[in-house]
């Protein structure tokens, strides 16, 4: 049975601490955006909504939550293109207060984006078109991102969620401990949703938790603070992987586990879940490699032993099937057919042998007479 347990010192894959959910009975984050995002703006057939005389919006995916309020901090992921050059900006996680952006208290180039985000609901994905006046202006940007002058912009945005004044301050104003604490609360909310089988909602909570600990933030941490952050961040990745496995989204689950293994190459739970996902995709050799490595660090774990046994049974079944297929193709080896005797040939061979013998005797007698 899958649940979040209270044990602080798990002794096996099947016994986990309160940070993590259990998925052994069954088998996003900076740099890991939704797989739905493509390298070019998608074609959208929905109606065009005019948010501003210079900002229009089309919905790609309906949201299921509320709109951000005046005081909410938003977590969203976006990709952007310049319509003039079709140049794609780098993927960027943002955390902003959209109402403030609309009022011009944030950077000018974020104004059009802020208008769009303020109109969205949690879970919604949309395509925004922003005129250059509310984008990067007449001069554009020649640093990062590189945007041509007077470039109209296209934003593909996914609003992950937002805080309704829950944290009390913007992420950028928080101390290290406050950011880790806020992330931990998100993680615990995600665990509750997971137990209720609300997997998509749970993943959103884990995703927002990880947003508190982006690459720029983690790069600045050392010692105990980095350990504190990883103690929250890694379980969020593993829990996201657990959700993805239950949703049969195995490639994404592998990506989440690989992020954890990038920090801790011997993480047993990450190895186990990546092995589960790989096995489900038919990548048996890679799955076996993960399970064998996990068993090295948890030699008595029954869940790992079970998965290795299942792989062995799978390999045996595949071998037997291939054996039957090849047997059917080539069939049993044919018995040699005895050659029919040809009496005329035998008589002719006998006559030749007699002639050869007589000729030999004649030659011998000739030599003697000489």
From TrEMBL:
TPR repeats lie at residues 268-301. It comes from the Eukaryota. PROSITE patterns: FKBP_PPIASE, TPR. Transmembrane segments: none annotated. Residues 1-46 are annotated as: Disordered. Signal peptide: none annotated. Pfam families: FKBP_C. This is peptidylprolyl isomerase. It catalyses: [protein]-peptidylproline (omega=180) = [protein]-peptidylproline (omega=0). Residues 71-163 form the PPIase FKBP-type domain. The lineage of its organism: Eukaryota, Viridiplantae, Streptophyta, Embryophyta, Tracheophyta. Keywords: Isomerase, Repeat, Rotamase, TPR repeat. It comes from Flemingia macrophylla. Its EC number is 5.2.1.8. SMART domains: TPR (SM00028). PANTHER family: ARYL HYDROCARBON RECEPTOR INTERACTING PROTEIN RELATED, TPR_REGION DOMAIN-CONTAINING PROTEIN.
């Amino acid at each position: 049975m899958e649940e979040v347990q209270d044990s602080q010192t798990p002794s096996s894959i099947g016994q986990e601490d309160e940070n993590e959910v259990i998925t052994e009975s069954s088998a996003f984050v900076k740099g890991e955006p939704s797989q739905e995002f493509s390298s070019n703006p998608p074609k959208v057939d929905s109606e065009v909504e005019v948010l501003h005389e210079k900002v229009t919006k089309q919905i790609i995916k309906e949201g299921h939550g509320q709109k951000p309020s005046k005081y909410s901090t938003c977590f969203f992921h976006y990709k952007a293109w310049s319509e003039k050059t079709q140049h794609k900006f780098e993927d960027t996680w943002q955390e902003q207060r959209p109402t403030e952006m609309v009022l011009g208290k944030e950077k000018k180039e974020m104004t059009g984006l802020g208008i769009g985000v303020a109109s969205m609901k949690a879970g919604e994905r949309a395509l925004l078109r922003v005129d250059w006046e509310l984008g990067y202006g007449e001069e554009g940007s020649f640093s990062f991102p590189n945007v041509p002058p007077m470039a109209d912009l296209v934003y593909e945005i996914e609003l992950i969620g937002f805080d309704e004044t829950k944290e009390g301050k913007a992420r950028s104003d928080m101390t290290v401990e406050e950011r880790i604490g806020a992330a931990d609360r998100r993680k615990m909310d995600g665990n509750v949703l997971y137990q209720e089988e609300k997997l998509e909602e749970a993943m959103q909570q884990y995703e927002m938790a990880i947003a508190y600990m982006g690459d720029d933030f983690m790069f600045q941490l050392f010692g105990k603070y980095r350990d504190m952050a990883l103690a929250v961040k890694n379980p969020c990745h593993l829990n996201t992987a657990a959700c993805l496995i239950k949703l049969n989204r195995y490639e994404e689950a592998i990506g989440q586990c690989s992020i954890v293994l990038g920090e801790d190459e011997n993480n047993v739970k990450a190895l186990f879940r990546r092995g589960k996902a790989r096995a489900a995709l038919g990548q048996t050799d890679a799955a076996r490699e993960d399970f064998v490595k996990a068993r090295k660090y948890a030699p008595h774990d029954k869940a790992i032993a079970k998965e290795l046994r299942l792989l062995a049974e799978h390999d045996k079944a595949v071998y037997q099937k291939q054996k039957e297929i090849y047997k059917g193709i080539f069939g049993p080896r044919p018995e040699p057919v005895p050659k029919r005797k040809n009496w005329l040939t035998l008589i002719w061979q006998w006559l030749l042998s007699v002639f050869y013998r007589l000729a030999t005797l004649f030659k011998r007698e000739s030599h003697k007479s000489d």
